[in-house]
Amino acid sequence: MSRKDSKGMFAAVLGQLSEDKEREVAAVRSSSPHLLKVAAGVRQMHERSEAAERLLRAGEQIVELDANAIQPSSIHDRYDEAYEAEAISEIAASMRERGQIVPGLVRPVVGQEGVYQIVYGRRRLAAAKQLGMKFKTAIRDLNDEEAVIFQGEENTAREDLSFIEKCAFALAQQEVGFKRDTICASLSTGKSHVSEMIAIASEIPSDLLHSIGKAPGIGRPRWAKLVQKLQSSDQASWKRLIASADFKRLTSLDRFEAVFKLLSTKSAGRHSAQLRRWAPPDKEIAISIKSTAKKTVVTFEASNGQDFAGFITDQLDDLYEAFQRSSKAIGD
Known about the structure:
Blueprint: H1 3-18, H2 33-57, E1 62-66, E2 70-71, H3 81-98, E3 104-108, E4 116-120, H4 122-131, E5 134-139, H5 144-157, H6 163-175, H7 180-187, H8 191-203, H9 206-212, H10 220-231, H11 235-243, H12 245-249, H13 252-264, H14 266-270, E6 274-278, E7 286-291, E8 296-301, H15 305-314, H16 316-331
Parallel strand pairs: 2-4, 3-5
Antiparallel strand pairs: 1-5, 3-4, 6-7, 7-8
Helix pairs in contact: 1-2, 3-4, 5-7, 6-7, 6-8, 11-13
């Protein structure tokens, strides 16, 4: 083989390694185990130099900690457990052969001596636990806001999160009370973009979102369209789909396409809005109740409709307590 051909094949292998495993890419001409091994080593050395440079600039020292003494992050930022398991297995295989090349970052847990929380390097930590190895990491005192910013910045720098994972990451931060400035910093983007991402993640039912997974390559426009379709569709249709064995065997990208296609058919939304009406014998009040997958709208009409709506509003606290008691009784 000529030197020119070898360089071309090696470049192709490096390109292959950097692609998302679920994204369809052009086939690489060579599948030589030797080239794959060398390429993997070069890639890890590149990652190590970048990580080491960042940590050394900050004056950090790399230490080895008991992997079991490191707690997970409180903010989840990834989907696709099957994909994660595969990725962790590959990292573990590399670490078994070469050791841990790229260090992580942890912070001390307040009030628990010798206990730390992972900031970034979660998959490397999982691999170290599998192998029974010490975890190479820098230790930095960080508050909650600083930790989540580091976590997000590391993923953004490595282009590690898909669009919808970033949306879910932003929503998770908002739900635990982080300020918008912190969320923006963790994702290296502006407030308007963060608001849009949070809106998209909050409009998609969590069971559907987790069933689809990270959907690499699917950006804002198609997720926004999916949200629109969900608002006028019957959730029973997509619930049946995601529960099927065939759906679960699909890649994340194909799962997104399957849901999108289902919601795009006329049958998915044909009976999406359920309408109920109620009126007392005197017809002084007319109530319409319209329910979709995402919301229920109650309309008060007729001569006493507005007054009755005000009466109901004044009784909301008592009604909700009665509802809770009723729900608990049914659960018991």
